[in-house]
Amino acid sequence: MALTFVAPSKDKAELETGTAFTPRFDEKGLVTAVVTDARDGELLMVAHMNAEALALTIETGIAHYYSRSRNSLWKKGESSGNVQTVQEIRTDCDQDAVWLKVSVAGHDATCHTGRRSCFYRAVGVENGKARVTITDEHRHFDPAQIYAEK
């Protein structure tokens, strides 16, 4: 039996303090998913989930997301082997975002660039212009080999 979600309560107090998990999907049917490493708390990625991805994640304990660019469901690590096993799921006060604490298998990398985190660049200012600098050069795997056409 597939997991389904009921509509969020319009009662703010019930939404914020009640025990029902009633995710508030946006107009495109998505909620934001913030993903951190359960081991050390490092921010690994931010993604989106539709109801199917969220239900599969809860049911299987393996992170699933919805790709806005591909308009499709995807199981994290399906191609790379860097599967995310969910240790805990939390939701924010108005239930329009979820926080996944995960353990990463494979190369212990989350980003498709081969890095541990998708947040490998810092934003700063140089000569009056916003710039980014890479703060993590370490690649845990070669993306060209992992994502090569099969």
UniProtKB/TrEMBL annotation:
Annotated keywords: Amino-acid biosynthesis, Cytoplasm, Histidine biosynthesis, Hydrolase, Magnesium, Metal-binding, Zinc
Annotated ranges, domain Phosphoribosyl-AMP cyclohydrolase: 45-120
Protein known as: Phosphoribosyl-AMP cyclohydrolase
One GO cellular component term noted in the UniProt record for this chain: cytoplasm
Pathway: Amino-acid biosynthesis; L-histidine biosynthesis; L-histidine from 5-phospho-alpha-D-ribose 1-diphosphate: step 3/9; Amino-acid biosynthesis; L-histidine biosynthesis; L-histidine from 5-phospho-alpha-D-ribose 1-diphosphate: step 2/9
NCBIfam families: PRK00051.1
Matching InterPro entries: PRA-CH, PRib_AMP_CycHydrolase_dom, PRib_AMP_CycHydrolase_sf
Presence of keyword Ligase: no
Main location, first listed in the record: cytoplasm
GO process annotations (BP): L-histidine biosynthetic process
Gene: hisI
Residues forming coiled coils: none
